[in-house]
Every structure is written in structure tokens, then in C-alpha cells.
Amino acid sequence: MEFFLQLLINGISLGFLYGLAAMGFVMIFKASRVLNFAHGEILALGAYIFLTLVTWAQLPILVAFILSLMGSFILGFVIERLFLRPLIGEPLIYVIMLTVGLAAMFKGIMLLIWGGNLYVYPDFLPAWLALDLGPLTVQPVYVASIIIGLIFLSIFGLFFKFSSQGIYMRSVADNQPAAMSLGVHVRRVFALSWAIAALVAGMRGIVLGIISGINVHDLSAIGLKVFPVVILGGLDSIGGAIIAALIIGLLETFTGGYISPSLRDVVPYACLIFILLVKPYGLFGLVEIERV
Amino acid sequence: MIMKRIRNLRFSLCGNYLERYEQELAIFETDFGRLCLLAAILFLFAVVPFISGPYTLYLLIIIAITSIAALGLNILVGFTGQLSLGHGAFFGVGAYAAAILATDYNFPFIVSVLAAGFITAIVGIGFGLPSGRLKGLYLTIATLAGQFIIEHVLVHWESVTKGVRGIVLPPPTIFGFYLDGDVAYFYVTFIALVLMAFIAVNIMRSRYGRAFVAIRDNDRAAEGMGIPIFPYKLLSFAISSFYAGFAGALWAYYMVSITAEPFTLTLSVEFIAMIIIGGLGSIPGAIFGATFITMLNEILRLFTQFLMTAPFMSGIELTLAPLRELAFGLAIVLFIIFEPRGLAEIWRIVKSNFRLWPFSY
Predict the structure, then answer these.
(1) Alpha carbons within 13 A on the beta-carbon side of B302
(2) Is residue A286, in this structure, part of any structural domain at all?
(3) Res. A292: pLDDT tops 50
(4) B92-105 pLDDT, tens per residue?
(5) Beta carbons of A227 and B141 less than 8 Å apart
(6) I want to staple B242 with a disulfide (CB 3.0 to 4.6 A). Which of A93, B38, B39, B117 is the partner?
(7) Domains and CATH numbers, chain B
(8) Chain A, chain B: beta-carbon pairs less than 8 Å apart
(9) pTM score above 0.95
């Protein structure tokens, strides 16, 4: 029973992390229909910027956190401006391959600068964050990640619901030509969605770095874990991504706990193929009706 | 009558003067190209193996093997328009199939290489099944899942694949001759490459090839024209995986011992990089791309070696892997932004510039 509860809690926290990563991913897809294979690398870059600011520049944690989020934001903006802008209107395969190329590029750059070692952040989370649930305790990191996740989710929920930029972004996602003809600056929306997605990714990179240490390969591999999540949830549904993330997180920890640890990393993908065969647009995705 | 058969050789064309469909289907625009290719193949088989050292031979063999795999991927991605991120895993399936057939069942070289191709084709059809309902992004993600699943199976199905210990292959024999040494294997791989390229060119000129291109350009229109999309997509998956498996089997025999380590997503991306850099939907493009990536790998290796030994670099640790990743990524990104049609297009422009000189534009 205790084991089960521990797995349940691990799964939910893992799911929350996946959900946050998937959020940035879905945002880019919704706004510009780009499937971002470099998501894991952007996430890792955020973690490394934070690491450098905290350990090398010795900045206070909060300042470093805000600065690295700003760094990720600018990074997203620059990526869109330099690499994605020239490809607007090009066939899908070029856009996908461009993000694959970017992923390899960033990975190389990070390996050149920081090497393949495992780093850890200095311990800064207060111990009172730990949640005592009778027989088992939840690590402060997980509590912090869930809190940060909820904060960001509500901020973005409000942003999309009420701010004008958020409404522009939703309109572009919904119908690009119509939004354009109503005077929405579509290119700015693309840039903004990349920037915000990079920010979310960077934030999540930091949280993940706190939990399991910072290593280029591990962090960028997590970028690929996003795919089962977003497909299960439906590529263009943020709420769906969160729910799917919880499902995938639980699935992963329970397979790891009860069946075999080596299956842990494959089960999400097996599940992914199954979903694609049965319900290709996911649980909450927009079904494009087309009979081919 | 015989005189009528022998037409004048055409050496230069300044435009399109096509009057019949056969002309449209012709592989060579001019006989000059045909003669050049013949001369190149003759040179390749009669001269190259005898003037090149072991290192060059090794490079050439690797180029030939990767070219075959890239050809297959180009049929799927470049001609049929189905982006697959699992080609590296299919290459691995071919390598393992050949290794298992050769060790456990004592299959001779040719049979096990061909059988590896067919086994991989069946696996490819299996992972192509989602293409019945999916296209574009969704299919790409399905093939990504396929890559991870195959990788997992190769490592963890210990009773068959021997897990991380790998398999050691017997030396290849053809009709009782031992193919020892790189020169013999050079002939095997390049004859295979020429054959496979010939088959690929001709598949693309057949009704199947035209159907593939129709599906790539507009699947709804293709369906409207009476092309059954799903079987053709599966066929494309099968052909492409056959090429991958065939190449993987050749690779396994050449490497002698194999483990599951190389057949990762990185390899799949490498294959995609080959066809994008070489030119999507172009048969020579796949070969150019494979050559480019293999050479890039080697140049980077030499470059890091040079830097490691250079005096001014002492104290700075430099490893190959990050530079390779960086260079690959950069090459893909630059080609997509500046020359999306790849080396094949550059080659075409250079050729036509020479042909039309001094009035090239």
C-alpha cells in the first residue's frame, strides 16, 4: 500500500512536470503548427543558464530564476526570428527537420560549454515544503514543482483568457487567415508564442534540474517524452496535455514499479502507437475530418 | 532499319524539347550524362580499388552502405512524403536479422542479406500501419515511437539479440569464395549500390513511383485519381525498410561484430540529414548526402585529432561528440534555410551552367 501511494505521488509529480513541458510544446503547435523537436534542448539550456547564474555568478536564487526565465524568453524569440521565420509557408518536413537540426546544434553547443557531466544545484529549497502524508513524505522538490506548475498554469490560463496578446494568439491558432484579415500581427504572435514556450521550457528545465540533476543527455531526452503526452492529450489542447501528462506520468511510474524498470521508458511510446491507431487526434484534440 | 535504331548522340540541350512521354521519362537528358556515368562507374570498379589505401577503401565502403540506406529513406520521405524518424532502427533490424541468420541458422552471405532486407520490410510494414489513418506530424511521431520500441527490443530481447554482448558474424562467403579484405567487400558493396540505385530509379519511373509522387504532392487528389493510398503508403514503407535492412546487413558483415548501440535516434536523424542535404526526392541526392555526411564525420574526427595534438590547445579538453552534433545540426539548418533542395540542386545548377556557357544565367 505504501509502495503504491509512493508510486502514485511520484507519478503525479512526474505528470505535472510533463504537463508543464507539454504546455510550451502545445503553445508553439497551436500558434504556428510547428512540431518542436528542440524542446528538450531549450529546456536544458534554461537549466544551464540558471546553473551558471547560481554557481558561477553567485546571484541570489530569485534573481537568477527571473534572469534565466528572461534568457529563455529571448532565446525563444531569437530562434523564431533567425530560423523559423524564413520557413513560413515551406513544406512540413523542412520545418520539422529544422527543429531536429536545431536540437542537434543546441546539444552540441551545450556539450561544448558545459560538458556531459552531471551537475547539481546547491540545495536551496526550505525543508518546510516537505509534505507529511502519514506514512510517507513528499520531497520538497515535488511540492515546489507542483506549486510552480499550478502558478504558471493559472497565469497562462488568465493570459489566454483576458490579455489582448493572449486573445490574438488564440485567434491565430484558430484560424490564421481570418486573424490576419482582422488585423492581428501574425508574425508577432508566432514570435511571442515561441518566446513564451521557451520561457515555460526553461522554467521546467530548472525544476527538473533541481529534482534529478542537470545533464545534457537526460534533459534533452525528456523533450522527446513530451510526444506521447501531447498526442494522448491532443496536439492542440493545453488542458488535454495536462491530463494526458498525469496519465503518462502514472503509467510510467507504475510500470517502472510493478513490471520492470527497463520497460519504463518504452511504455509511453507503445501507448502512443496504440492511441494513434485508435484515436489519432487524442483525447481532447480537434478532429480534422478528412477521409483519405 | 538498323540505321533507324541508331540515333545521333545528343550532347547538349538548351531547353526542354519534350514531345513524347518517353522523353519525359528518360533518365538522362543528354547522352553526355550517360557516357559520363558509364565512365565514372568504369573508373570506380577498374581503378579506384587499386589506387586507394585501406583508409580510403573503408570510407568508400561506408559511403556505399549508407548510400543504400539513404536511397531507401529518400523513396519514403522524398518521393512519398512520409517523414520517418525510425530509419536508423530499421537499419539496426537489418543488421541484427543478418547476424542472427548467419550465426544461428548458418545462412550464406547473399541469402542472409536478402532475407534481412525482407524481414526489415515486414517490420517496416508493421510500423507503417499507422499511416493508414495518420499523416504529416502524427505519422512522424508514430515512427519516432517505432524507433524507441525497436531500440528497446534490440537491447532487451536477450534470447535472440544477445543483449549488450552483441553478435559476432562469420566472414562473408559468396559461392565458396571468402570475401576477405576490403577490396573484395568494396566490389560487393558497390555492385549492391549500383543495383539498388538502378532499381530505385526504375521504381520511380514505374506506375508505383508515379503513385508515390502523387501521394506526396496531394493525397486527396491522388485518392481522387484512383490511387489506393494506404496500400501504396505501405508499399513505400516496405521498399524503404528493405533498403534500410539490406544496408544494415551489409554493414553488419563489414563490422564483423554488432551491438545495439549505434542504432539510435541519432542515426535516424543522420539519415534524414543525408537526404535533406543531398536533396529530397532525388536518387543521386541520396548518394551525395551520404557522401557528404560520411566525409563530414571523418573531417570532424581529423579536426578534433588535430586540435588535441596542437600545442595551443593543451589543457582544453575537446571531444568529438559535441562537435559532431553541432556540425550536423548546423549543416541541416543551413541547408534547409539556404538550399532546401540540397546538393542535387547545386549539382544541377553547376551542370547546366557548364552546358549553357557562355550564356548561362
Answers:
(1) 6
(2) no
(3) no
(4) 999 999 999 988 88
(5) yes
(6) B117
(7) 56-308+317-356 (1.10.3470)
(8) 136
(9) no
